[in-house]
């Protein structure tokens, strides 16, 4: 007996709101607060945001539905779910679990930076408007050898501690407080950032699309970002869906989760990019954007030090509600299929992921010269392979499996709780999942690989 199946019954979410918050918690994370603003900065701002929105509507909602429906129907982990539809698709689930490993390996490194920033804000080390000094501080941390690995380890330990507890543990309760707190915090920050002199240039950068900036790279990055940010394409929502009761309204959840996720990403963009322009930073500077710009914003706010501490703590929490979902994808598979004990599984996988993360951490410092894929070091290679290849490929296969092989009628039947609830968008969703989403993914994918 294992904790996924106490009394032969699969464990379920404690409540409806608990599931929504856990799934939104998985979606809202470093992808929104840290990655979205710098991806937008790197890819021409509004051009990226526009493409992101188009892909979000065509692909994001569609795949969210598909994963949740497949998960609840099969009541299985990512690999088990695909295999139940047909043995020929087992590999799609395997790809998902591998993506989980890869993503968590570098995600946890960034999570470690966040913990370090919680400590730094508690001691007041970040309380300066000297952006040069802030840049140096960030560079020193991520370029180090032992320190970032140590913090990466602490982040993994926190992740393990939560996953140890199983599904309906403290995370549901904690999410109820922390998710709304994060939302309010982001609004306050966006307002402060928007009221700096020169901020409007940042708003224009983020929201006014420069069509000439749209190219293949931008489209592939936006596609990868939709998958990454919504936790799609690797079976995370299949796994979370497998713990859903047959009463849950999946169509509703599949709309609420992406809306919350996108709202937080936009707020993060509005909190960071206007300040970037007001302070004369470079928007395309990459991963350091959140860590360097925001402290300067806080330093210019009343009670800034306290807000800063609260903010980085909330970022840490958002990262943890995502990292546990990444680990859960891998753990659920081993617990379900190999019948391993949940705690032993969690520790073993956690150790492997910690080790895989070490090269990712070092590639920002002592190993910066090592190139793995093109000019990418370990960190960027993990991100690229997972976000831009595995997740879109997983998403494409998901559409084919749900829309064509399993059968769209059966999928809609599951989505309507066997005909007991209304799903007015069913014809549109069916069309999107069978034709629009797979074709869109395929086009982006092929064009960018060529
Ligand atoms: N969606 C998370 C974020 O935006 O930070 C990252 C993530 C979590 C990706 C879970 C994939 C996943 F399965």
From TrEMBL:
Keywords: Membrane, Symport, Transmembrane, Transmembrane helix, Transport. It is found in: Membrane. It comes from the Bacteria. One of its GO terms (cellular component) is membrane. Its main location: membrane. The chain crosses the membrane at residues 17-34, 46-70, 91-115, 149-170, 177-196, 222-243, 255-279, 310-335, 347-368, 389-408, 428-446. The keyword Transmembrane helix applies. InterPro entries: Na/ntran_symport, SNS_sf, YocR/YhdH-like. It is a multi-pass membrane protein. GO terms for molecular function: symporter activity. NCBIfam families: Na_transp. Belongs to the sodium:neurotransmitter symporter (SNF) (TC 2.A.22) family. This is Transporter.
